[in-house]
Amino acid sequence: MSKLESTASSPKHDVFQAVADPTRRQLLGLLVDQEMPVTVISGHFPMSRTAVSKHLRVLADAGLVKERKVGRETRYRLEPEPLLELKRWLAFYDRFWDNKLAALQRYVEQADGNDDSQVEAPLTVVKREPAE
Amino acid sequence: MSKLESTASSPKHDVFQAVADPTRRQLLGLLVDQEMPVTVISGHFPMSRTAVSKHLRVLADAGLVKERKVGRETRYRLEPEPLLELKRWLAFYDRFWDNKLAALQRYVEQADGNDDSQVEAPLTVVKREPAE
DNA sequence: ATTATACGAAACCAAATGGTTTCATGTCAA
DNA sequence: TTGACATGAAACCATTTGGTTTCGTATAAT
Question: Which residues pair with A84 in a beta bridge?
Answer without folding.
Answer: none
